[in-house]
Amino acid sequence: MTVHPTHPTGWRKASYSAQQTACVEVGRVTNGAAVRDTKNRAAGYFTANRDQWSAFVAAIKGGKFDA
């Protein structure tokens, strides 16, 4: 986990989530992204730097997590 000096901004939920309740939101932080549970925002968030986030998104797009 990476600690960033600023609070996340611009939180957004994926459009694929629609009316689902099991969703996450992504926000911007200095040089990366923050992720939190939409249902439990008070629980906090975790962050990833730009390289980590890019690798994660590439893995999703590449089907690495498909069941």
Which features does this protein show?
about 30% strand, about 70 residues, 1 helix, four-stranded antiparallel beta sheet, alpha+beta
Give your account of this protein's structure.
With 67 residues, the protein is an alpha+beta fold. Helices cover 18% and strands 31% of the residues. It has one helix spanning 50-61; strands spanning 9-13, 24-29, 32-37, 46-49. A four-stranded antiparallel beta sheet has the order 1-2-3-4. It starts with 8 loop residues before the first strand and ends in a 6-residue tail after the last helix.
Q: From the helix content, strand content and strand pairing, which structural class follows?
A: alpha+beta
Strand count, sense and barrel status of the largest sheet are: 4 strands, antiparallel
Low-confidence stretches: none
> Helix coverage percent of residues?
10-25%
Number of strand elements: 4
What is the tally of helical segments?
A: 1
For the residues shown, what is the average pLDDT?
86
The Rg value, from CA coordinates, equals 12 Å
**How would you spell out the order of helices and strands?**
EEEEH
Largest sheet, order of strands side by side? 1-2-3-4
